[in-house]
């Protein structure tokens, strides 16, 4: 097992403890065991990481983009070679089933390969000018230092999705690990070092959000803050940056309350299969999870039967064949149980799950849970729960389905199941979200696909894809005047 008993910071290519030696426990969600002590960082460790980044940023920015890309290509190769090691780290940190942990390693390597290619493109534009003897073009410039603040749900993808494009664009990166998944970003630092990244260009600091995240966001040397996490923290980050002496670019990738619409002409078995995947993969701890199943009245009963049949067969556990792992912490499990109980007290019915899996205690496993009868305005229908809980809603027709789909403060992803391309196209037009899936799951990102949300799900940026270069570079417009008389 590759998990260390002490999780340090990674600064200037070295593992370092906190200056005063403070630490906190890391527990494994599979069995509640304390697996490590984690260095508890604060302003001093952040300052150390930022000094290292500031010292390394300029030289890194001067490396030609294709050469920066080549280092990411080597990182991809090393990730594939170390698939087992990273899979084990991800599994100890999150408890997710093995195939999902391994899939995260593969998709992170794919992203590095994609970004390697972007190093050889890194395109700007040329534009005509109405002024004679003038050329206008845009070039992409590195920003300087990027702060990457990460969620816990996919720790390797979380750091890779920020660091690979940020590094390709010529920035130094200071990553703030999630306190519940701290070691992945350190192992990632060692991998980048082995791939040839110069000293100091990437650092990872450990600690709680207000201790280690806030001083990073508030430091005027940070030119871009890339945050993935809850909408509430995202808004706080935006506010902190706006109060700095010097502004910075802020990229927010936030939560979702994603609708999964089943029309009366849908393939109900396929829809049930994909509704279950949408709701319960990664124990529902995905920004793109399908937490609202909106079903036409005419097929509601038939879909409900197919859904419950499939939910009863979901394999809960963290083994090779399991589908739904534990949630991240005891606090998260208790919160989810309380949210389900609250919904029931306000009139909802539990059709499946609603309780912890006693046989897997003290692991933090919640039975895949389906609720019915919660009003659309209820907290359980409006707020992201981030766990294996989904709600069924009955609607009369397409218009009501679209109204309900758009009826929360979020707008991340949405799916529609229908045989009609007219309905599918109308949903694509009318659903306000960053990703729409037709006859598929509510998730489905790839290294080349821009992903992000609207409303409380994001502030307009997209990661990854070519669009992520817009997060991590400044566009500089270059106006060149020349004089034919001097040729
Ligand atoms: P969170 O907001 O609680 O924490 C995210 C990060 O912010 C952590 O590293 C945390 O330490 C840090 N943080 C907390 N308070 C802070 C502060 N005051 N200053 C600076 N940093 C602070 O979110 P979470 O529970 O870890 O993650 C789950 C959320 O992430 C869900 O809402 C999920 O939908 C979202 N998410 C979004 C995407 C996306 O691409 N849109 C992807 C994955 C997860």
If you had to describe this structure to a student in words, what would you say it looks like?
By secondary structure, the protein is an alpha/beta fold. The chain has 15 helices and 22 strands. A 7-stranded mixed sheet has the order 15-16-17-14-13-19-20, with helices on both faces. It has a 5-stranded parallel sheet with strand order 10-9-8-11-12, with helices on both faces. It has a 3-stranded mixed sheet with strand order 1-5-4, with no helix packed on it. Strand 19, helix 14 (421-430) and strand 20 form a beta-alpha-beta unit. It is globular. The N and C termini lie far apart (68 Å). Bound molecules: nicotinamide-adenine-dinucleotide. The site of nicotinamide-adenine-dinucleotide (NAD) has 29 residues, from helix 7 and helix 8.
Structure summary, number of beta strands? 22
Tell me the overall shape.
globular
How helical, in percent, are the residues? 25-40%
Strand percent estimate: 15-25%
- Low-confidence stretches are none
The N- and C-terminal alpha carbons lie at a distance of 68 Å
Q: Helix/strand-derived class?
A: alpha/beta
How many helices? 15
Ligands in the model, by name, code or SMILES, are: nicotinamide-adenine-dinucleotide
Query: What number is the mean pLDDT?
Result: 97
Major sheet strand order? 15-16-17-14-13-19-20
